[in-house]
Design goal:
Length: 223
């Protein structure tokens, strides 16, 4: 649910998890440890506590890329009690610019594509980096901005940007990931100072970030 949350992120640089394991980690008695070394109740207990407090958990993990778990608990600011009216940041819109969206999660890809099209952007969507490169090579029009996940099978976001930017010099780029920015930097995938938005994000934040990058006069911080 949309709202204001306190977020706790825990990251490691371990072996990571595949999709089949990720889907089961909150099930009671599920464990990847050897017999006698784990009950499989730890994460199930965490999940129950978070849900009881109207929170939620997001897990980001890929084999060989470590794991980041983000726990969100509803935040209550005493200073805001009694003030029902809250200023919402103005949502910016596009002017027909072309955005290439690359995201290997089909549901997220569909959501972002619909959001950008409603906001006035032309969208080219792809679930695979190699496919995105092929689409860019076949395209007959300029791509104004690349919106890409950082950790993807076969090619990471920085490598994808470098390939697309060779076709469209001056290409702007916004990276997105469920992993925290410092974890990505430690892995050497991205440099400090690049344009980055953390998942999950709210629609207005994404649209405003894209608008700010497209309207920037210089070309710094895109690679």
């Amino acid at each position: 649910m949309p709202g204001h949350y306190a977020m706790l992120a825990v990251s490691d640089n371990g072996c990571g998890m595949d999709e089949a394991t990720r889907e089961k980690i909150f099930e009671p008695f599920f464990t990847t440890k050897v017999v006698g070394k784990g009950t499989g109740l730890g994460l199930a207990t965490v999940f129950g506590i978070v849900k009881q407090n109207q929170g939620f958990i997001n897990v980001y993990s890929e084999p060989g890329k470590g794991t980041t778990i983000k726990i969100y608990i509803p935040s209550h600011d005493r200073e805001e009690i009694g003030h029902s009216e809250k200023k919402v940041p103005a949502q910016t819109s596009g002017s027909g610019e072309t955005v290439l969206v690359v995201e290997d999660d089909p549901a997220i890809l569909r959501m972002i594509s619909k959001l950008l099209m409603r906001a006035g952007y032309r969208v080219i969507a792809s679930g695979k980096p190699a496919e995105a490169v092929a689409l860019a090579e076949r395209g007959n029009e300029k791509i104004d901005l690349l919106l890409t996940d950082v950790v993807m099978p076969g090619m990471n976001g920085r490598e994808l940007y470098e390939k697309i930017a060779s076709l469209f010099p001056g290409l702007r780029c916004l990276y997105m990931s469920g992993y925290t920015a410092n974890v990505i930097a430690q892995q050497g995938i991205l440099k400090e100072g690049i344009d980055f938005i953390a998942k999950p994000f709210i629609n207005v934040d994404l649209l405003n970030a894209i608008s700010e990058i497209l309207n920037r006069n210089d070309q710094s911080g895109v690679s």
